[in-house]
Amino acid sequence: MWPKLFELRLEGLHLGLPTYGAFVALGFTAGTWLAGRSARRQGLPEREVVDLAFWLLVAGMIGSRLLYLAIHADEYLRDCVEPSGRGAWRAIVECTRALQIWEGGLVFYGGVLAAIPTAWWLARQRALPFFRLADLLAPSVAIAHFFGRLGCFAAGCCFGRVCDLPFGARFPAASNPFSELAMRGEVSWAAAATPPLHPTQLYEAFGELAIFAGLSWLAMRKRFDGQILLVYAASYAALRTVVETFRGDAGRGHLGPLSTSQWVSAATFAAAALLWLRLRRRGSPSG
Question: What is the pTM of this model?
Answer without folding.
Answer: 0.82
